[in-house]
Amino acid sequence: MKTHKHDGPPAALSVDEVLHELRVHQTELEAQNEELRRTLAELDTSRARYFDFYDMTPVGYCTVDGAGLIRQANLTAGALLGLPRASLLQKPITDFILSLDQDSFYLLRQRIKSSGEHQQCELRLKKENAFFWAHLDALATTDEDGVAVLRIVLTDVSVRKQSELDLAQSLVEKNIVLERMQQAERFAQNTVDAISASLVILDANGTIVSVNRAWRQLASANECDLCQVGEGVNYLSICDAVVGEDTESANEIAAGIRAVLAGQQDSFILEYPCHSPNEKRWFIASVTRFKGEGATRLVVLHQDISELKRANLERDRLIADVQYHEARWSNAAESLGEGFWEWDISSGEMLRSRVFDTVLGYGEQELPLTAEAWVELIHPDDLANNVTCLQNYLTGKSSTYAIEMRLRSKDGNYRWIACRGTGIARDAAGAPTRMIGMHTDITERKQMELALARQHQLLHDVVENLPFGLVVYDKNRQVILFNTSFPIKLNIPSGLMDMSIGVQNFPLIGVQFFPLFSLIEHDFCGA
């Protein structure tokens, strides 16, 4: 409102002047009111934005006072805990913490109290009759009334926790498979090394692939350099290079090996002398071809029969388990490939992490972001099982979605994938409308399981194809393993020969029975 200054006493205003002054004052008030209304509108908009952000954020917010009571909470906090927001207020937050994790929350508050800074922890929160893993980020502050409170942010990390558990379980399973393979390989090598006869394994070219301890000892006794008669050396070349009185037997052995390699005969046996400067010695050389699938392998066995020759005793020879491990396990601990995915069931749209595609050899965004593109990659033999498993989860017949299946990679080969998922949004009927999950590459584990099965088959083939009877028994003379030839060689009735019988119960009267090699991890063999 304007004011008028006068040098003397104020003069009386006319009616028109008073009306003018009132109109000016009215205009100024209206402008101020308009500015106030605009400010209030902006404040209401800002407040609405704040509450939208506060309530609609994907993480839960709550305010806890010094007594541990929930003073404020957003809608997400209520959804996480399975209660309406109003039902959370004035309830102790510890009512929602699993009893086993109460100490974690107590320690969190103590750390905040001592440091004055925000602190974090992970614990399990109750939701109805179940629980979920939550990440808590808490900070001590004061509210608008100056009361000390804790501001807590709640994030559901159940999927990550489950992924960590699945990953740990996968590693445990891989380690178990690896340990079994290593045990099988050690058992095979120890078995081969325990054979008293000198043993050599050859490939299709006659090159030495593996030798046992007796072969190395024989080479040393004959003052031979192992580099000249060991792995990587062509055995046929060794035989062809022999001169002197052993030339004839060496040539016969080489000819027998070539005949077996060419498939002209299944096996070859030769008794030959091999005298050292200090004693007379005789050996039986046997050549046996591995039967079954896989690379061509020959077992060449040189059995010292000097004692039997001098005593003119007959004996049967024994070859124990020979197991050659062809499939080498490498980089198993680093072969885990995980792809995280999110699927909008209604639209079919799928979001995937980069690893999801790279595990299958595809570049980023090279595969369409749809469920149909995923289905196209499933092996035809696994498709029906996957559809059934998924439908059971979507319809509530199953509480989990977890399956192992093969997916086609970019190069056309299939990789084994463990797929796990869970619903994160549901419709009014409770059916999932959105799912998230993880893909884990378990191809190497599957391959190792297959390799282990092949190892056992190889062990079985070697034992069954030995030209001699074989029995493996423990220190208590309890039978562990025997081949088909063993009961036949000893004329043991088939009904009598089983794993529960002890070696001492064999009808060995009139039959020569003697151990051919010694302790192998507390097991014994005889023929």
Q: What does this 3D model show about the protein?
A:
It is a single chain. The chain is of the alpha+beta class and 527 residues long. It has five domains: 44 residues; 99 residues, Beta-Lactamase (2-Layer Sandwich); 116 residues, Beta-Lactamase, CATH 3.30.450.20; 117 residues, Beta-Lactamase, CATH 3.30.450; 61 residues, no CATH class. 38% of the residues lie in helices and 25% in strands. It has 15 helices and 19 strands. Strands 2-1-5-4-3 form a five-stranded antiparallel beta sheet, sandwiched between helices. The chain has a five-stranded antiparallel beta sheet with strand order 7-6-10-9-8. The radius of gyration is 42 Å and the shape is elongated. The N and C termini lie far apart (125 Å).
> How many DSSP H or I helices?
15
Q: Would you identify the CATH H-level superfamily of the largest domain?
A: PAS domain
Strand arrangement within the widest β-sheet reads 2-1-5-4-3
Structural class: alpha+beta
| Oligomer class | single chain
How would you concisely characterize the structure shown here?
The protein is α+β, with helices and mostly antiparallel strands and 527 residues long. It has helices spanning 15-56, 75-81, 85-88, 102-115, 158-194, 213-221, 226-229, 235-240, 247-261, 306-311, 354-358, 371-377, 380-394, 443-464, 485-489; strands at 60-65, 70-73, 119-127, 130-142, 148-156, 198-202, 208-211, 267-273, 282-289, 298-304, 338-344, 350-352, 401-408, 414-426, 432-441, 471-474, 479-482, 515-520, 523-526. The protein contains 15 helices and 19 strands.
Annotation keywords:
5 domains, 25% strand, 5-stranded antiparallel beta sheet, 15 helices, alpha+beta, 527 residues, elongated, Beta-Lactamase
